[in-house]
Design goal:
By secondary structure, the protein is mostly helical. The chain has one domain: Glycerol uptake facilitator protein (Up-down Bundle). It is 68% helix and 0% strand. The protein is built from 11 helices and no strands. The N and C termini lie far apart (54 Å).
Length: 251
């Protein structure tokens, strides 16, 4: 709701009620609050790519995957419907009742991501891949208790800032979906709410890229963290003992 409504305000306000930074902040704030809301209950799995990655590496039982995905997709779909209802009058005024995916009054991008006109499918895939790898790498180092983890209670804020940083630097090419459950449900919603099936054919059938590239990027982020950081970490107990020994020697 925070993310999509910020896009709606920028687009429908014709740049007079926010800019790209507004959108980045909206998604960052939404992620922060989502983690606070669900962190203690489910681990705050807000991203299907991350959930599937946790299943692949053995951190989450596969039997739990359907419930997580249903929750993510339902939440994203309801968020789209909420923003659509909130801004329906503005949408109608902006488009004169003609909801389009492309063109001067295109509004489908309020809800889902679409590649910039100059982007190829391969280039767009790579952008989403890299952005999601950075997302996973950032999340892992924020929560890495064997290295230099964030202070307890700050993880949600730092993850929101991480998403903000991705938007600030990696949002130009594709709108940084970095999350299948953020992109597909709103696309389905727009398909049945007036924009039609063009939401699946636009951008050289772009719709499948935000589903697959984030998963590949997520796995790459885990691999990078394992190779360059986690394998070099000391066990928590050993690390703690070594710090204690250093203190004793200093004394």
């Amino acid at each position: 709701v925070f993310g999509l409504s910020s896009v709606a305000q920028v687009v429908l306000g014709k740049g007079n009620f926010g800019q790209q930074l507004s959108i980045n902040l909206g998604f960052g704030i939404g992620v922060t609050l989502g983690i606070h809301a669900a962190g203690g209950i489910s681990g705050a799995h807000l991203n299907a790519a991350i959930t599937i990655t946790h299943c692949i590496i053995g951190n989450l039982p596969w039997r739990k995957l359907p419930a997580y995905l249903i929750g993510q997709f339902l939440g994203s779909f309801v968020a789209s419907a909420t923003v659509f209802a909130m801004y329906y009058d503005a949408l109608y005024d902006y488009t004169k009742g003609n909801f389009t995916v492309t063109g001067p009054t295109a509004t489908a991008s309020i809800f889902s991501t679409y590649p910039a006109p100059y982007m190829s499918l391969l280039g767009g895939f790579f952008s989403e891949f890299v952005a999601t790898a950075m997302l996973l790498l950032g999340i892992l180092v924020i929560h890495d208790e064997k290295n230099n983890e964030a202070l307890k209670g700050t993880q949600a804020l730092l993850t929101g800032l991480l998403v903000l940083g991705i938007g600030l630097g990696m949002g130009l090419n594709t709108g940084y979906a970095i999350n299948p459950s953020r992109d597909l449900p709103p696309r389905v919603f727009t398909a049945i709410s007036g924009w039609g099936m063009e939401v699946f054919t636009a951008g050289h059938h772009w719709w499948w890229v935000p589903l697959t590239a984030p998963l590949m990027g997520s796995l790459a982020g885990v691999f990078i963290h394992k190779i360059f950081i986690d394998f070099h970490n000391q066990p928590v107990l050993e690390s703690g003992n070594e710090k204690g020994q250093q203190v004793m020697e200093s004394s």
